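Technical appendix A lists one of the benchmark inputs used to test multi-chain prediction within the project. The record comprises two sequence entries:
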Amino acid sequence: MSTYSMKKIAAYAAAALMIASPAIAAIVKVDNAKSTVNIVFKQMNVPVDAKFKKFSASIDYDAAKPEASKATVDIDVSSFDLGDAEYNKEVLKKEWFNAAAFPKASFVSTSMKAGAGGKLDVTGKLSIKGKTVDVSFPLSVKKEGNSQVFDGNLPIKRLTFNIGEGEWKDTGMVADEVQIKFHVVTNP
Amino acid sequence: MAATQRYSNFSIALHWLIAVLIIAAFILGNIMVDMRISPTKLKYFSYHKWLGVTVLAFVAVRLISRLMSKAPPYPDNMGKVQTYLANGTHILLYVLMFAVPLSGYFYTLAAGYPVVYLGLFDLPVLIAPNPEIKDSLKSLHEILNKVMFVLVLLHVAAALKHHFYDKDGLLNRMRPGI
């Protein structure tokens, strides 16, 4: 090869590296203590708050190229807590989460695109109780100090996942729509 | 011999209506806590709370009406002791008819379950969910209920004693009808 093209290649390579380095995607460390996966559902029209206390989230986030980002959340179903021990146990039974057979629920993103209002349009697969469903929801990202804070609200229909079978199918008792609120904070 | 005057029709209607609502709420309350978790159990909890809120509203009206108009006089031969006992019991009943539903209301709020009256109207969330005081409020609600139960039995027993044993026509004060 001629020196001229070698120089060109070197120049291009250097330029590419310089452009690419700020855009190198980073697997960010999630601060599980500050992150939450909260649930809101309605029981005879009364809003009930619950949460999953144990989950692990991993975010591969690229601020410059959000489309290249990837997020997964693995939830320990038995960590469901709505503030009452008796009901927490009930919810793990077969008619509800069937935690014995399906101990984990998960969300895996398949695409994250820049959306309106500075938010990301996230699409992915939500798996609960052995059923996987395509979902999409807006995710807001903001920087707080050295951390990134991701907030997303994903409404689902519990009957899609057979959560609440048999006598519990009645959506007058427990509404079909359930809000899953992701709040993921990363460590610097 | 016989008591000659009745309470107003309004007071009489409220008295019996409230009595029925309290009895219904009390029975539901005792049944529902022992049920296994089911949609029916949850329905009973809701009905119980709606009944309690309704009682609270009606008792407030009853109290206002009671303070604004004189109650009919007691029978002539009741004497001081029985009069004090009667007045004391009635005052305590009024206190409990507020305290019981109020303690229940704060209990459900502390537990994180606000009341949506009849499934339609969001009632004020006066306190935020509070796991620390939740158990104390539950105990308070149960204790107040037990005291009210005893007082209601006393109230009924006394009314029957006056009317059928003393034969002083006391029940006529609260007799429904024109």
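Chain A touches chain B at residues 43-49, 82-84, 86-87, 90, 167-168, 170, 173 (CB under 8 Å). The radius of gyration of chain A is 21 Å. Comparable benchmark entries are summarised in Table A2.
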